[in-house]
Structure to design on (426 residues):
């Protein structure tokens, strides 16, 4: 009995005597927002009364613990303080998962993890189980991505691998329990004639499956090409009902959204084609074209813009007043549901130019641009970063929205946003 107890205590001590990997980042960013008084959604800032500044102070703490030679624990804990009109604080786990490797050709992952399946930089249509990327901030500088609760198995054989993932949401508010949103995802990756190719599928309860593929290939020492495609039969994305109306001079008395293509059999696809080219090791150019069949077509987009113009013209019309409020105001507020971080229409062009050698190795510059190919409106984002030491950096970032008032980016809620931030890695 004493020998057994001694062996158990020795094993327990050895387990927690393993080195712990601990690192983190502390960052602070202030935002100054120039409100667009000509916005179609919020004319003269009368409807939403948007604030003109905000601040985010947050810290990520990364922890890694090798419990045994075949079992590891990883976690990312974030504490966040946001200040707009009022201060909000949050504490949450972005990631926490166990990694089990019982054999060289087999891995298991259990917990909450952020995965990356897509090959694109600004868009990720095949990232069916990863956070949806924002083209104006694909690097997630404010670290807002959160992992999904999952159980994953990876099988490796020769130049190929197979990944199977089961996903469900773990509720922790009252008691630990799983939701009823069962999802399954699969990825088969292989090397084919110099191309890294992945076949991807995702199936969700009570919804049609999604199937696609992506690829990437390096040509020479400076050029990389990549592409993605994801398709499904029908679409569950809610569409604005103005695209079914006989004329755009219409106001709705209820939130005008419905999944109009839910029961259609035709294929809805999302595809991406892009490349990256490196100049002399210090500068990099990335270009991507993205198409989304679930976005509004050119004709539907123009009809939606005409509807917004009509609603703006009716704001002072007493015909639309009621005890519940002005109907034109309600329609404009409902219309913001069309706005999407991945774009409201179908075709976009993204360009990124980055250089790490401006004036000195302590200064880097980046220029991002996103254009709507339907109405030629655009977002242009220059960023200048200064490295004050190996672990401390500061940056200045400006986002400008250009285009006619009757366009996607020209009619948004803001004309520009200026961000000033600093980060410290520890």
């Amino acid at each position: 009995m004493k020998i057994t107890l001694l062996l158990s205590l020795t094993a327990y001590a050895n387990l927690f005597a393993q080195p712990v990997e601990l690192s983190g980042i502390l960052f602070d960013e202030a935002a100054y927002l120039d409100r667009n008084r000509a916005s179609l959604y919020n004319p003269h800032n009368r409807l939403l009364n948007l604030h003109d500044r905000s601040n985010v102070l947050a810290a990520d703490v990364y922890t890694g613990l090798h419990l045994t030679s075949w079992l590891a624990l990883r976690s990312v804990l974030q504490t966040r303080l946001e200040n707009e009109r009022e201060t909000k604080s949050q504490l949450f786990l972005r990631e926490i998962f166990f990694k089990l490797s019982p054999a060289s050709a087999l891995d298991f992952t259990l917990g909450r993890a952020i995965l990356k399946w897509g090959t694109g930089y600004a868009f990720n249509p095949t990232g069916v189980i990863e956070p949806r990327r924002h083209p104006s901030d694909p690097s997630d500088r404010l670290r807002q991505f959160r992992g999904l609760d999952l159980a994953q198995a990876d099988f490796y054989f020769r130049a190929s691998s197979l990944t199977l993932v089961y996903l469900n949401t773990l509720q922790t508010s009252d008691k630990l329990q799983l939701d009823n949103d069962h999802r399954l995802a699969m990825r088969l990756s292989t090397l084919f004639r110099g191309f890294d190719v992945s076949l991807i599928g995702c199936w969700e309860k009570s919804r049609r499956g999604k199937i696609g593929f992506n690829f990437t290939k390096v040509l020479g020492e400076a050029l990389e090409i990549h592409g993605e495609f994801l398709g499904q039969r029908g679409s569950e994305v809610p569409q604005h009902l103005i695209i079914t109306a006989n004329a755009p001079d219409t106001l709705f008395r209820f939130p005008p959204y419905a999944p109009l293509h839910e029961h259609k059999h035709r294929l809805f696809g999302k595809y991406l084609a892009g490349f990256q080219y490196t100049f002399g090791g210090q500068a990099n150019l990335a270009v991507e074209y993205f198409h989304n069949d679930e976005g509004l077509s050119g004709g539907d987009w123009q009809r939606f813009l005409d509807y917004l113009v009509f609603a703006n013209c009716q704001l002072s019309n007493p015909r639309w007043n009621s005890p519940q409020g002005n109907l034109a105001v309600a329609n404009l507020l409902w219309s913001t549901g069309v706005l999407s971080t991945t774009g409201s229409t179908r075709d976009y062009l993204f360009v990124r130019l980055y250089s790490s050698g401006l004036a000195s190795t302590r200064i880097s510059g980046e220029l991002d641009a996103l254009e709507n190919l339907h109405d030629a409106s655009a977002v242009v984002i220059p960023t200048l970063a200064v490295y004050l030491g190996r672990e401390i950096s500061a940056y200045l970032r400006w986002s400008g929205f250009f285009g006619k008032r009757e366009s996607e980016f020209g009619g948004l809620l803001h004309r520009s946003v200026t961000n000033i931030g600093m980060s410290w890695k520890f």
